[in-house]
Amino acid sequence: LKRKKISVIGAGFTGATAAFLAAQKELGDVVLVDIPDAENPTKGKALDMWEAAPVQGFDSYVKGTSNYEDTADSDVVIITAGVARKPGMSRDDLVQINQKVMKSVSGQIAKYSPNATIIVLTNPVDAMTYTVYKETGFPKNRVIGQSGVLDTARFCAFVAEELNISVKDIRGFVLGGHGDTMVPLTRYSYAGGIPLEKLISPERLEEIVQRTRVGGGEIVNLLGNGSAYYAPAAALIEMAEAIIKDQKRVLPSIAYLEGEYGYDGIYLGVPTLLGAEGVEKIFELDLTDSEKAALDVSAQAVRDVMAVLE
Ligand code: APR
Predict the structure, then answer these.
(1) Residue 108 needs a FRET pair 20 to 30 A away by CA distance; which of 55, 189, 280, 288 works?
(2) Mean pLDDT within 38-45
(3) Cα(6)–Cα(277) distance, rounded to whole angstroms?
(4) Which residues contact 162 (CB under 8 A, 6 or more apart)?
(5) What is the ipTM of this complex?
(6) Residue 229 near ligand 1, beta carbon < 6 Å
(7) Residue 227 C-alpha to ligand 1 middle, in angstroms?
(8) C-alpha to C-alpha distance for 194 and 99, rounded to whole angstroms
(9) Would you place residue 1 in the very low, low, confident or very high pLDDT band (cuts 50, 70, 90)?
């Protein structure tokens, strides 16, 4: 059996961190890609990671490049390429700039890795995942976005700290968009099988949910220059591992909906089964009226961003 191959497009903070995690976990050989202007730094980061291999004892080779030929026949491609919103840049400007990046990256992925499963991180992630889906022409199960794994991780981290219980025993559950429009299903959230609602007061649980919603902003404020990348990278690699190892994990993914939850033709965060075929199943749950109303707000937010796409 041949070794698996993971390409990470965008060798910035998140992409480089994801590449190193993938190598450390020996998910396969790793190719880190950035634009030609960043070719030397990209090669430098990859070489630096490979030089850690003898210390850490991983056999994954890490290559840095700006040439997509090097990504040929990837099993999983992670997209973190793009620009972050800068002062003075409107949200719509950001959408159109990153849409252009997705278009160029998608063409290269489709050309060299027609059988890959793609995981998108670039924001606004729902609309960028949709763009990659349209531009690659790949089947919907092989184009997936990341947001729910990160939102859930943040929620679980805060709950673990609150209860002084191992993170291993905390299970969270979110639907919908990233951040503000996230729809937390606290009634499906547990500590070692015990519903969180039995362990934490409703008021405190709501505070934790609210902190989760603005979790990205909390990091931005603390860093002062830049946005979160350790936990986002870890979230990407959890999804990639589920696919590469055909783990059949139940994880929240940004998946293409065709009627599920009453929405059609949009990408939205829903519980999915992740395995070798990418999104192998979308779980449809009965929602309360208020949960459905919150999910409607999420879906509308996604449509508002999609309206800005060219
Ligand atoms: N092809 C390949 N790489 C690109 C392209 C492109 N067309 N355009 C930009 N890049 C690269 C940049 O050169 C940079 O190295 O993408 C990288 C982005 O890295 P950072 O700016 O460090 O951003 P990061 O913090 O990693 O976040 C990545 O994820 O959180 C989302 O939307 C957010 O755009 C952000 C992305």
Answers:
(1) 280
(2) 98
(3) 15
(4) 200, 204, 208
(5) 0.98
(6) yes
(7) 11
(8) 43
(9) confident
Question: Tokens standing for 134?
Answer: 């349209």
- Reported confidence tier of residue 87, pLDDT bands at 50, 70, 90: confident
pLDDT at residue 293 is higher than 80: yes
Distance CA 257, CA 135 (A): 17
Residue 160 tokens read as: 């673990």
Query: What is the amino acid identity at position 41?
Result: P
- Whether the CB of 309 sits within 6 Å of ligand 1: no
Question: What's the pLDDT at 36?
Answer: 98
The sign of the CA dihedral 142, 145, 148, 149 is positive
Report the nearest-CA residue for atom 27 of ligand 1. Answer: 14
- Cross-strand bridge partners of residue 117: 76
Predicted local distance difference test score (pLDDT) of residue 210: 95
Residue with tokens 């979160």: 228
CA 33 to chain centroid, in Å, comes to: 18
Instruction: Quote the CA–CA distance of 222 and 10 in Å, as a whole number.
Output: 23
pTM of this prediction? 0.97
Mean pLDDT score of the chain, rounded to an integer? 96
Nearest Cα to Cα of residue 23 among 56, 66, 65, 69: 56
Residue type, 58: F
**Half-sphere CA count of 91, side-chain side, radius 13 A:** 11
